[in-house]
């Protein structure tokens, strides 16, 4: 997950390879070494099938993978259910549980709003897996949201 966040933070714009990595993260799939995009497909390790020399490949059609990094609508599908969110045109995003406004604030700050929301939502999902409540922040966004962060946490 940290590698995925790092790739998102370094992205300079929409990136189909990152979209594929997000798809893999959501579905518990690992990248299957070598070339990740093969024609119109993304290549992952098959979760159950193996060959003597390693895991079998699982191919996912390109059109099955949402354009998370270019579409804010697609990025919003990553927000955990029941969480409230906001995103600015400058690429700052925050989300938190609706029922705990004094709890978690997750911020993703980057030039592109869809990518910022991807960062925030994936950090929130990771926090839920590791034991919410847990504050996860993007350090670059701390400067932008210093006042807001102090009001909600």
In short:
With 153 residues, this protein is α+β, with helices and mostly antiparallel strands. The chain is 37% helix and 24% strand. The strands form two sheets. It has a three-stranded antiparallel beta sheet with strand order 1-2-3, covered by helices on one side. The chain has a three-stranded antiparallel beta sheet with strand order 4-5-6.
Q: Look at the helices and sheets and give the structural class.
A: alpha+beta
Query: What is the succession of H and E elements?
Result: HHEEEHEEEHHH
Query: Main beta sheet, described?
Result: 3 strands, antiparallel
Number of strands: 6
Going across the major beta sheet, what is the strand order? 1-2-3
- Per DSSP, the total helix count is 6
Quote the average pLDDT: 79
Task: State the helical fraction.
Answer: 25-40%
Radius of gyration, in angstroms, nearest whole number: 16 Å
Low-confidence stretches: 134-153
Shape designation:
globular
Strand fraction equals 15-25%
Distance between the termini: 24 Å
Explained architecture:
The chain has 153 residues and is an alpha+beta fold. Helix content is 37%, strand content 24%. The chain contains six helices and six strands, in the order H-H-E-E-E-H-E-E-E-H-H-H. The strands form two sheets. Strands 1-2-3 form a three-stranded antiparallel beta sheet, covered by helices on one side. Strands 4-5-6 form a three-stranded antiparallel beta sheet. The radius of gyration is 16 Å and the shape is globular. The two termini are 24 Å apart.
Question: What's the arrangement of secondary structure elements?
Answer:
Layout: H1 2-10, H2 16-26, E1 37-38, E2 41-51, E3 54-61, H3 72-76, E4 83-87, E5 92-97, E6 106-109, H4 113-131, H5 139-144, H6 146-152
Antiparallel strand pairs: 1-2, 2-3, 4-5, 5-6
């Amino acid at each position: 997950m940290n590698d995925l966040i790092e790739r998102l933070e370094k992205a300079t714009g929409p990136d189909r390879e990152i979209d594929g990595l997000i798809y893999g993260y959501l579905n518990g799939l690992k990248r299957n070494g070598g070339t990740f995009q093969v024609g119109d497909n993304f290549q992952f390790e098959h979760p159950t099938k193996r060959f003597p020399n390693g895991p079998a490949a699982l191919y996912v059609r390109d059109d099955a993978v949402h354009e998370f990094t270019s579409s804010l609508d697609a990025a919003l599908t990553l927000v955990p259910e029941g969480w409230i969110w906001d995103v600015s045109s400058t690429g700052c995003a925050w989300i938190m549980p609706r029922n705990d406004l004094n709890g978690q604030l997750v911020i993703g700050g980057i030039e592109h709003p869809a990518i910022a929301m991807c960062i925030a939502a994936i950090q929130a999902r990771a926090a839920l897996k590791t034991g919410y409540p847990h504050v996860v922040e993007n350090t670059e966004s701390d400067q932008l949201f210093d006042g807001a962060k102090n009001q909600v946490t």
